[in-house]
Amino acid sequence: MTGTRVAAVDMGATSVRVTVVDLDVDRPEVAVVHRWFHGPDPRPDGSVRWRWSELLDNVRVGLERARESGPLASIGIDGWAVDYGLLGHDGRLLSDPHSYRSPRTDGWREVARALGEPDLYRRTGIQLMPINTIFQLASHDAAELAKASRLVMLPELVAYELTGEVVSERSNAGTTGLLDVTTGEWAADLVEAIGVDARILSRPEASGRKLGEYHGTPVHLVAAHDTACAFAASPLDTGGRAFVSAGTWFIVGVEREAPDTSEPARLANFSNEIGAVRGYRYLKNVTGFWLLEQCGALWRETARELVDLADEAPGAPVFDVGDERFLAPSRMDDEVRAAAGLGVDAPHSLVARSIVESVAAGVAAVVEELRLTQRVEELAVVGGAAASRLVRERLAEHTGLPVVAGATEATALGNSLLQGVALGRFADLTEGRRWARGRLYD
């Protein structure tokens, strides 16, 4: 097959990227044609939402630039998990989607206890966190829910805006805390227990289907969850290799053939997320460079600049990055200084170094838990932070493992590989991974 250039829309919670990958060349190159930085937007009514119309505008700008760069065989869309939009009976979005960083889920523990935490984990296999869709929906305005004809996760909502097709992709559905991990279908009793009509949920389906066209270019369903795409681009078939997707979150885990919903797994709070095409991602979310990004917004510096600044500090105290105080504070730098025991006048370099050390320590703690049940001899690190020598060194130091760096745009690459499978360029994901492997890891 020739002419297999594809565009990957990769929606991150702090930036939206549109990239182009030519699947016919010998070695993969991920060309970023458009990037738009954004973040959760506090509203006057106290809600925290996404600027949805601006996001869509920037997706369209990116796709136009992708088309200008040459003919496209396909478009695929992935993005962050757990957030959703509600469509009314006229097919229009009822309101801007809420951000998972909204304080509206402050009562999530009461919801989890009412549902029964052991049973909830056994059914869904998902790490209990306030950001989970199940807890967001439990706190959603009942009047608006009553007006909804469809609930659509955000990457699929972009696909709907481009093609008019409503779809639910299974890797993304698997992050909601509402999907039965054994059957792969919605757990209707859980949906109804939080006051939601299960009929607004579309049946989850695997990636690969053509959804429609956008300006004449086919739009294919890929693994809508960005982590599933990042895993898809990572050759994890090497025994003993664990995975770190390093960005706003540091997502740490391994691939497994079957989910583990045992009591030890529940108490360790691991997630069993459905893979892009098969298997499960057994992982934990560690709060990552969200801390640096939020400090940088206050200091007018980028996360990359702060990592470079952190390199100037010889060392710094470690704190628990998993504390809920970091979910959406008014001043992240003050929270970090307090948690780390730093003075109010601690320099930016020391605060940044404390964040880097603490994130690395959080990753190491997850790796130690993984080692209780399997062999882990190496870390494969992808994502934006993988480009940092300091980050790789601190991960190696805290985990005691060799670290290999992969693609900084691994999510977009995985998205592209899945489009390649849908187009017939690759027989399956294994072949696509083999094609990409030459450039993925140093």
Strand order of the largest sheet: 3-2-1-6-12-11
Query: What portion of the residues fall into strands of 2 or more residues?
Result: 15-25%
- What do the pLDDT scores average to? 94
CATH fold naming of the largest domain: Nucleotidyltransferase, domain 5
Unreliable spans are: none
The first-to-last residue Cα distance is 29 Å
Question: What does this entry look like structurally?
Answer:
With 442 residues, the protein is α/β, with parallel strands linked by helices. The chain has 2 domains: 5-228 and 411-440, Nucleotidyltransferase, domain 5 (2-Layer Sandwich), CATH 3.30.420.40; 234-406, 2-Layer Sandwich (Nucleotidyltransferase, domain 5), CATH 3.30.420.40. The chain is built from 17 helices and 18 strands. A 6-stranded mixed β-sheet has the order 3-2-1-6-12-11, sandwiched between helices. A 6-stranded mixed β-sheet has the order 15-16-14-13-17-18, sandwiched between helices. Helix 9 packs across helix 16 (410-423) and helix 16 (410-423) runs antiparallel to helix 17 (429-440). The longest helix is centred in the last third of the chain and has 24 residues, at 348-371. The protein is globular and about 55 Å long. The model has no long low-confidence stretch (mean pLDDT 94).
